[in-house]
Amino acid sequence: MSLRLLITGASGLLGQDVYAVARARGHQVTALTRAALDICDPAAVSAAVATAAPDVVVNCAAYTQVDRAESEPEAAHRVNADGAGTVATAAAAAGAWTVHVSTDYVFSGAKASGPYLESDPTGPQTVYGQSKLAGEAAVAAAAPDCHTIVRSAWLYGTGGPCFPGTILDLARRRPELTVVDDQIGSPTYTPHLAAALTELAESRALCGVVHVAGAGAVSWFGFASALLAAAPVCRTGAAGTPGWAAIAPCTSAEHPRPAARPAFSVLASERAGVPVLPDWRSGVAAYMAAWSAQQVAA
Ligand SMILES: NC(=O)c1ccc[n+]([C@@H]2O[C@H](COP(=O)([O-])OP(=O)(O)OC[C@H]3O[C@@H](n4cnc5c(N)ncnc54)[C@H](OP(=O)(O)O)[C@@H]3O)[C@@H](O)[C@H]2O)c1
């Protein structure tokens, strides 16, 4: 059955893929970029929801500058907490379901064994993580019976800046690279996540928090190594030589950031009916195919 979907943050990395997947599955999609709809403006959000009359609102809008959030917590909370609540409030008032995207950064990263499940206690260590956790609470309060909060992790795709794009760019300009090897997570290819979000929107059966991320676990170093191993031969390598940079592991302490990343934030679901994404290595293969096609077209 064709649904009416409203996507916020539609020009973001994930928003673009949700739009593409939902359209491909035959849904009527209203995709609003930040320029078209600021989720911090309650009157504008209500008006946009009234106009689109959606069955489901997929909130892909967020303040995602994890390091910058440490020095501007009000801005992060305004979008990730208040804005998320505003979207869910407007959706619920219009009888629509909210699919809201959250993050592995709601966890401390200190879990001793096994992936993080939905029932595990949260404990964000950063302003960004705190603002996203507050957003989860705001969505649940605004739409108690009609929301799905989807926690995902380590998103990457071809629609904007992300870790693989940065690695591929640096690896063809530098002779060597060091990449953090003591943070473990679940790389998630945005078209895979977009398909799961669309499925959750179609079913509107899972209320509350669900974990949806690329299956398996790897460090940033392992992820970067897999990307470069799958990359086509580089023709503009360092000093004009073909080939990619040499890559070596390093510690988080050697790459300090304003916002400390969780050491371990692998996500898995304990709930029935939650979409299971392909293994992260399948995401790498799909990403490299799409990235290569982009290079040829450019
Ligand atoms: N990236 C990750 O690794 C990751 C991991 C786990 C979860 N997530 C979550 O996944 C979701 C999508 O993230 P993403 O990676 O697609 O991020 P993104 O590329 O930064 O996209 C976020 C979008 O939201 C827009 N936006 C910011 N403030 C807004 C506002 N006030 N009103 C309307 N739109 C606004 C941004 O517009 P501008 O670009 O113009 O600011 C951008 O288009 C977010 O909820 C994020 O927290 C991301």
Structural write-up:
This protein is an alpha/beta fold. It has a domain at 4-161 and 188-214 and 265-278: NAD(P)-binding Rossmann-like Domain (Rossmann fold, 3-Layer(aba) Sandwich), CATH 3.40.50. Helices cover 38% and strands 16% of the residues. The chain contains 8 helices and 12 strands. It has helices at 13-24, 42-52, 73-93, 127-142, 163-173, 190-203, 220-230, 280-297; strands spanning 4-8, 28-32, 56-59, 97-103, 147-152, 155-156, 176-180, 184-185, 188-189, 208-211, 218-219, 246-250. The strands form 4 sheets. It has a 6-stranded parallel sheet with strand order 2-1-3-4-5-10, sandwiched between helices. The chain has a two-stranded parallel sheet with strand order 6-9. Strands 7-12 form a two-stranded parallel ribbon. Helix 4 links the parallel strand 4 (97-103) and strand 5 (147-152). The longest helix has 21 residues, at 73-93. The protein binds NADP nicotinamide-adenine-dinucleotide phosphate. NADP nicotinamide-adenine-dinucleotide phosphate is lined by residues 8-9, 11-15, 34, 37-40, 60-64, 79, 83, 101, 103, 132, 152-155, 160.
Would you summarize the structure shown here?
The protein is α/β, with parallel strands linked by helices. Helices cover 38% and strands 16% of the residues. α3 (73-93) packs parallel to α4.
